[in-house]
Records
---
Amino acid sequence: MNTPNSEIVLPLPDDFHAHLRQGELMPGYVRDLVSQFGRAIIMPNTVPAMTSAAAIADYKKQILEAAAPVRPDFEPLMTFKLNPNYTEQDLKDMMAVGVVAGKYYPAGVTTNSADGISDFEAVFPVVAMMEKLGLVLCVHGEEPGEFCLDREPAFIKRVETLAEKFPKLRIVFEHLSSAKSVEAVKRLPANVAATFTVHHLMMTLDDIVGDALRPHHFCKPLPKRPEDRKAIREAAFSGNPKFFLGTDSAPHQQGKKECPCGAAGVYSAPVAIPLLVQEFERAGALDKLPNFIAGFGADFYGLPRTTKQIKVVKEKWTVPAIVNGVVPLAAGQTLEWKLK
Ligand code: NCD
Ligand code: ZN
């Protein structure tokens, strides 16, 4: 795989968690994503949220139009925001327009989640329908009202309850940030998997508030202690099929981050794959990268593995200070690997 001229051929990556927003900013965000990914799970926390087949079909069409000049074969994997009000017919209608998963946001824990779930058991009937229809449940696992660093560990019990009550439901515990949740996913049955972001592999809370306030690193769930990052890295580099990439690339315009009440979200789409190659190489785990970016996630979602490829070359480049109005992850830094 690592050829003498330091060129790596990788399967075209899948991103199992991406935010594309809507409106005039969306096409730029789409182009950044599809320059590195052939498929992506598109998050539904738009304003208004994605809750109907008609809205999702329209959103998908707009995404495909924006992707066409860069990657006409891009496949957006659509999602809806979970609430207790869907009928089975609603779910079937959404599946007919390309929905593969529903997203559980606890109320108020992250960007655009004020309309999230406050009564856990109230969504069980809809979750039961999702299990029956073969829809995946993506979970933002943070318990509202807990101290910020404890929110994810406090949510583990809910994932355990879901896994026990709905044994055939595929559950993705997303963007893990704590050693405790990594352990929980390892221990839970095979219907529970997890995603890791690039930034949670790389950062701890020190990178947000340790020396100076770095608003472009601020995201939910918060990156936590060194031992948490260590657990995430070990799991990602281990080749365990329960763990795969979901970047949670979440663009916010510069002014929405550099202000008195800044938005949560890290924009990693423009740099995700070069940074992952760098991290896996430094860990001596490059052989584990293809499955992490383009194998285990597809298997879990029941999608065919991609047959397409991308090339990454060992060539220094400097990440722009700003991309589409957003300060990206690693802005201004020189990276070792570049997408060809
Ligand atoms: C995401 C966003 O900006 O939409 N923000 C974040 O900090 N991760 C929402 C989310 O996935 O939590
Ligand atoms: Zn997200």
---
Amino acid sequence: MLDWDTLEAQCLACQKCALADTRTHVVFGTGSRSAEVMFIGEGPGENEDLQGEPFVGRGGQLLDDMLEIIDLDRKTNIYIANIVKCRPPQNRDPLNTEQDACIGYLRNQVALIRPKIIVCLGRIAAARIIKEDFKITKEHGQWFERSGVHMMAMFHPAAILRDPRRRPEAFQDLKSLQAKIREVCTHTY
Ligand code: URA
């Protein structure tokens, strides 16, 4: 396991897959490195690639609004990272080969943070982190536990923007996350 500085330096210079050729910035991750709650998305989009930060732009604003409902803040009490750190062209799903090349960085981040709770944003992250055949429509909001880490998936903010009828379910999932934080976290609230 690498320390934060070495890990970030290696990640920022990464050439392990072809996404390195088309990226503007590597999007390493952001937030508190002592967070008990970690959010994991799929990969950078256009705005994230331009700014080097996860979840900026419209989806990021919605994510911030959702976090605020349950008193979470991306800078102070959570950490946000993605499965792949570089933007797939035209925002296509990251290929399995790209995910395989990149996942070690995320695993190292998880090992350094040792979160109590992992929230996957969308199917791609849930399929990689929780289980391969994850069905986001059916299994969002359900809790899974592995090695003492509590995990759940919520709809991706972009999916909520595309279909606002998902908002009530997203709200329920946030309330469930809030309850789980109260149950297992000691310094998030
Ligand atoms: N979508 C993601 O999954 N991650 C980001 O960082 C931005 C958009």
